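Annual report, structural modelling task.

Input specification for the fe (ii) ion complex:
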Amino acid sequence: MDDTEFIDFQVFGPTPVGWDPATLPNEVVDEDGTPLRVKGFGEPDPRVPARRVPDDPGVVALREHLKANNGIRGLEICAPDEVERAARIYRRDGFVVVRDALDEEHLALFREGCARRLREILSHPGRDGRKYMAETGRLPHRYCYGTTSASRQMMHDPAWTAMIDLPTTTPILTEIFGTDDYLVWGGGGDLSLPGAIEYQHLHTDGVDAQPKGAAAEARLRHFRRQGMGIDSDKPFDELDFRTQRLVMDRTPTGVTINFTMTDLTWENGPIREIPGTQTATQPPPVPAEEPEWMRLSTLVGAPAGSAIFRDVRTWHGATPNLSREVRALPSIEYSAGSRNGSGFQRTMPHEMWQTLSPHAQRICRFIKQAPGIWPYGAGAMHPLTSGRRAAYQADAGDRGEVASVYTDPRSAGTAIRLFNRDHDSGY
Ligand SMILES: [Fe+2]
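The model returned the following structure:
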């Protein structure tokens, strides 16, 4: 990293960061940072331009194409007080954009946190003349605040925890879940540097498991709280197939909010979301088969300070950032109360939890570490899984372990994920 790049570094507006021609298109690094170009390791973009420079002819052509065509036509953007409209659009499309979710103070706090943490991620030098170390298993110039944190979440950073319970988002979450008794799973969020010229493959962040017994009845209660008039006394098992599907479709177990630090424009890598796919049981198309209309199905027009509510099942992916500014979308991840803390990791310090609102304290109860114990790995940001594993193990000792898992690149956002397992947290 060239320190002069980071003078007055911010995650909005023009920056010299990014656009590293030494980092080859579709290049991915392994657990230790060795660059690989191996099929099956990550998902390459078959239509990527030849060179990572703004005046490459392929980049110029892509820029012209995106300027003319990028973005969902007629994208609906809600105001924070349009609670029912936002929930209706969310249930129909699997996502909704709500503007003005962050006031000036919260936007500034989140921007500062994102810049501070990104600086840490990029402080690890790249190999053989590359500007930055890439994140293990992720396409170049793309990182995730959650997966680069050795605790796997950002719940130890006050810039993130301040966004858990906002007057603009809590009523909409309550409407979506049909109750204020939902939970926080964690928080992180994806970002791209200028010069991230590849499309990230379409994927889901979560899929439905077959609900049985109490879990199925919990989803049915969630469905009924939405005022859906169905056979009110029948259990889930006795509902017809279409109704069972509708119950599943309308009761997401995971809702992520991504907050926009910049206006999303045709050129700065707006997230793409494919409407209606929260109900799909088939996998999304692989990059070579993705139609152009899906590549252009992006949230251009969402202003800085917006909240993008996403059903985690909805097909989505990052798009090329051909601009001169960072595109950061920090997130808070929520889940239905019926999950009851199962699989949750203790990533929030008790002392930070104590400073939260009563509602935030309640919905964060399963991710709070015990008093006096710092969450294992929290505070260490590293692009490589080897670095994160070392940081977690240094904190946890024999009180936890790390598993390295190769996830299906078509379902998860990255090919290698670390799963921390705290022995004392029941997970
Ligand atoms: Fe994702």
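Residues 3-208+253-422 form a domain with the Jelly Rolls fold (CATH 2.60.120.620).
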